[in-house]
Target: Ion-translocating oxidoreductase complex subunit E
Amino acid sequence: MAEQIQPTFLSELRRGVWTENPVFRQILGTCPTLAVSNTIVNGVAIGLATSFVLICSSAIVSLIRKIVPNQVRIAAFTVIIATFVTVADQFLKAMFPPISAQLGPFVPLIVVNCIILGRCEAFASKNPLIPSLIDAIVMGLGFTATVCTLGFVRELLGSGTFFGMRVLGDWYSPWVVMILPAGAFLSLGIGLGIINYIVSKKQA
Model:
């Protein structure tokens, strides 16, 4: 019988950030990606909040996977996710009120983020704790990297700033459209096009 090769953390990281990237490859979590990626600060905040909820929820789901009746598993997963979403939301409101105000309802809406419920149902509910944690970490990193990348591009082109600091001189005329909803769709579309082009070239 062929020996099974155990995946390394680097291979798992590559899976979450590239081969199975939640946004660019699976087209999941596009609502917060489009809505709050107008600055890199918002990207970091929503990425970390989503990763926190994903990691904690996956851990709990993995631990209780054998005792939750199959008929109520989705309802149970939703309650678990909602609990950690509330923790993340209250933490942001208490510690970072300006960021919480900018993110608006998109932190509470993490509870219906298909990335989190999808990983809990497809992976954590079927695997032990450590693999579930690794899966949640790499998927969270993949989502965070994507939304931060879009935030960087949109903030730089739309405002000429990086983390709120002016980096492009007075010679630069900001593309205001990049910080508007149209800029979100444009940035995501270009990103998807680039990723698909690279993948097709590698396959060819």
Notes: Strands lie at 161-162, 165-166.
